[in-house]
């Protein structure tokens, strides 16, 4: 049975973020939100059917207004549903003890090298049942939804053995089927070198490339293939092998690059034709230039820098140099345990010199491109999926200005209301 059409009217600002469906927005384009004052949108059959001023749409649909559910957005703004293109939400356990250790002086890499960090979550995730992982991850998805997020990417990488990697990817698939948020999967078997391969990491790379990646492709378990390229984890040469192996099976490359120190990860992203390079806290000038030339999207994660008390990536420079920038929470139990993408937007402004408009572009259309969905989502344009968020602020700048607060009023996913007055409906 088809749902009632939804007619949103009288939005103070209806922010369409239009014009970037073919390719991500760069430079000045990122700062130009297409805004309709007293805006309106007609949503039907899960699709955006019309966008314009309230007056225009009231005329256009004058003989159908009676059959629609009408949402009055007076005093509010309307945005495309937010998109998070980099998360690790399928995990078990929690690591507040490490947070406490760090506040007592230990570094993230010290904790990881002593069996904590990714290894601690790996142990818990290996032990967890399918059902436990599913229910823990659903709670996180519910929290994302309440923050206006309608699509996320989710990575495996807390298994480091095939059985658990597969379990994570299967859970992500079930989340996509069972939860209203769309979940796009990335295989990240090379998230860390497992303890039993510390002396022979190349053997683990062989297992990832020759055994796991073919299984991922055979089971149609992921669209993307990611690797943690960092000193002490995987070298650029090993990372290249892993990403090239995925390409043979049509897995699109992504890379965790230059997070802790400059390691030519951004350069590698450009060379292998990665869709995105993520983190980039210490990306070199040359790496940034190459990313801009090749159109590699920089997925920046200022929440991780904030939580690890590190300097943020050079977002301002990347935008000025022509890198298409997207933003993400990096939601994970060790370095960024948050689902608040709006807070990440605020950090992008405060810590990376981005403008409120650029932050919105980075969480909508550019984030859509980072997961290869630019034509379907990320803007309020006719024909796109009816993923819409209505926020309780009178203009878009207040979204970041009133920081650390959740302004979400209503969320519409594929044409259905899923959050009302800030609560799941
Ligand atoms: Zn990550």
Distinct small molecules bound, one entry per kind: zinc ion
Question: What structural category arises from helix and sheet content?
Answer: alpha/beta
Share of residues in helices: 25-40%
Rg, Cα atoms, Å? 21 Å
The low-pLDDT segments are none
Count of runs of 4 or more consecutive helical residues: 16
The biggest beta sheet is recorded as: 9 strands, mixed
Q: Based on the structure, what is the oligomeric state of the protein chains?
A: single chain
Q: Name the overall outline.
A: globular
Which percent band covers the strand fraction? 15-25%
Number of strands: 17
> How far from one another are the termini?
19 Å
- Overall pLDDT: 97
Structural commentary:
The chain has 425 residues and is of the alpha/beta class. Helix content is 37%, strand content 22%. The protein has 16 helices and 17 strands. The longest helix has 18 residues. The mean pLDDT is 97. The chain binds zinc ion.
Summarize the helices and strands and which ones pair or pack:
Blueprint lengths: L5 E10 L19 E10 L2 E7 H7 L8 E4 L4 E4 L1 E3 L11 H8 L4 H6 L4 H10 L2 H17 L2 E7 L6 H17 L3 E9 L10 H18 L5 E6 L6 H12 L4 E6 L7 H8 L3 E4 L5 H10 L2 E4 L1 H6 L7 H7 L3 E3 L13 H12 L3 H8 L1 H6 L17 E4 L5 H5 L6 E6 L2 E5 L2 E2 L1
Parallel strand pairs: 1-4, 1-5, 6-7, 7-8, 8-9, 9-10, 10-11, 11-12, 12-13
Antiparallel strand pairs: 1-2, 2-3, 5-14, 14-15, 15-16, 16-17
Bound molecules: zinc ion.
For this entry, give a set of tags.
single chain, 425 residues, alpha/beta, nine-stranded mixed β-sheet, eight-stranded parallel β-sheet, 16 helices, 17 strands, binds zinc ion
């Amino acid at each position: 049975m088809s749902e009632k059409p939804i007619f949103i009217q009288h939005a103070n600002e209806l922010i369409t973020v239009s014009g970037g469906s073919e390719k991500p927005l760069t430079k000045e384009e990122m700062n130009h939100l297409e805004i309709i004052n007293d805006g309106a949108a007609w949503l039907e059959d899960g699709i955006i059917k019309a966008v314009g001023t309230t007056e225009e749409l009231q005329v256009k649909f004058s003989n159908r207004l009676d059959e629609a559910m009408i949402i009055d957005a007076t005093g509010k703004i309307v945005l495309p549903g937010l998109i998070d293109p980099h998360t690790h939400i399928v995990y078990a356990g929690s690591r507040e003890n490490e947070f406490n250790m760090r506040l007592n002086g230990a570094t993230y890499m010290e904790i990881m090298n002593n069996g904590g960090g990714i290894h601690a979550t790996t142990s818990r995730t290996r032990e967890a049942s399918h059902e436990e992982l599913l229910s823990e991850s659903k709670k996180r998805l519910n929290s994302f939804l309440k923050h206006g997020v309608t699509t996320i990417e989710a990575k495996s990488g807390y298994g480091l053995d095939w059985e658990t990697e597969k379990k994570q990817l299967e859970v992500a698939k079930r989340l996509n089927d069972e939860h209203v948020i769309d979940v796009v999967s990335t295989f990240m078997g090379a998230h860390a070198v497992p303890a039993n391969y510390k002396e022979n990491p190349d053997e683990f790379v062989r297992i990832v490339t020759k055994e796991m990646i073919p299984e991922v492709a055979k089971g149609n378990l992921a669209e993307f293939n990611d690797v943690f390229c960092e000193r002490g984890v995987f070298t650029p040469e090993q990372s290249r092998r892993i990403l090239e192996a995925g390409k043979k099976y049509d897995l699109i490359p992504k890379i965790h690059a230059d997070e802790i120190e400059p390691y030519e990860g951004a350069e590698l992203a450009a060379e292998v034709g990665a869709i995105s390079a993520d983190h980039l806290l210490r990306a070199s000038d040359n790496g940034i230039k190459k990313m801009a030339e090749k159109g590699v999207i920089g997925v920046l994660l200022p929440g991780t820098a904030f939580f690890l008390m590190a300097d943020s990536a050079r977002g301002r420079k990347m935008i000025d140099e022509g890198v298409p920038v997207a933003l993400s929470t990096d939601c994970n139990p060790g370095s960024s345990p948050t689902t608040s993408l709006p807070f990440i937007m605020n950090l992008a402004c405060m810590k990376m010199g981005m403008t409120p408009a650029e932050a919105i572009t980075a969480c909508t259309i550019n984030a859509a491109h980072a997961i290869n969905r630019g034509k379907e989502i990320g803007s309020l344009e006719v024909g796109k999926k009816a993923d819409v968020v209505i926020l309780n602020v009178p203009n878009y700048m207040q979204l970041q200005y009133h920081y650390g607060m959740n302004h979400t009023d209503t969320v519409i996913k594929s044409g259905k209301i899923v959050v009302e007055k800030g609560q799941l409906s």
